[in-house]
Amino acid sequence: MKCRQKPLTINASLVRLVNFRTLEGWCLKMSNSVLSNDHSDINLLNNEPFTQTDHEILKSYEAAVDGLAMLIGAHCEIVLHSLEDLKCSAVRIANGQHTGRKIGSPITDLALRMLHDMADEESNVSKAYFTKAKSGDLMKSVTIAIRNRNQRVIGLLCINMNLDVPFSEIIKSFVPEEKQDVTSDVNFASSVDDLVAQTLEYTIEEVSSDRNVSNNAKNKQVVLNLYEKGIFDIKDAINQVADRLNISKHTVYLYIRQFKSGE
Question: What InterPro entries would the database entry show (predicted)?
Answer without folding.
Answer: DauR-like, DauR-like_HTH, YheO
